[in-house]
Design brief:
The protein has 145 residues and is of the alpha/beta class. Helix content is 39%, strand content 21%. It has one domain: Cytidine Deaminase, domain 2, CATH 3.40.140. β1 and β2 form a beta hairpin.
């Protein structure tokens, strides 16, 4: 999770909403990502999407069923869908996302038993650090504007 926080800090430095994600396979990080929505002018450039794509490219596989993803913030519906479609086995996330969270806050897509793969979800990991980074970002944005 520490590496995901480092990715979130990179996003913060680039004036992006500070969310970071890493995909791990056999105790090795094979995909990293941080939000790049502003720099890429792309509303789908979330940390999870970038990390999942990098991991798939690394393994040359579309399914990441032996992988885990570590995310600083609860994934949104789009990212949760990508996690399901890529068949990631374990999801670890930090802070809950009360506006768009799809792993327990607004909706809990990962708890649905309607999908072919079961996903283990672990929340609240480095939650305070993740939340503090996000709050600092938005405090800074409000001061500038």
């Amino acid at each position: 999770m520490f590496s995901a926080l480092q990715q979130a800090e990179l996003a913060f430095e680039k004036d992006e909403v500070p969310v970071g994600a890493v995909v791990v396979y056999q105790n090795k990080i094979i995909g990293r990502g941080h939000n790049q929505m502003e720099s890429l002018n792309d509303s789908t450039a979330h940390a999870e999407m970038i990390a999942i794509t990098a991991a798939s490219n690394y393994l040359k596989e579309k399914f990441l069923d032996e992988c885990s993803i570590f995310i600083t913030l609860e994934p949104c519906l789009m990212c949760t869908g990508a996690i399901l479609l890529s068949r990631i086995k374990n999801v670890y996330f930090g802070a809950f996302e009360p506006k768009f969270g799809a792993a327990g806050s607004v909706y809990n897509l990962l708890a649905e038993n309607k999908f072919p793969n079961n996903i283990n979800v672990y929340s609240g990991i480095y939650a305070e650090e993740s939340q503090n980074l996000i709050q600092s970002f938005f405090i800074k944005k409000r001061k500038v504007n």
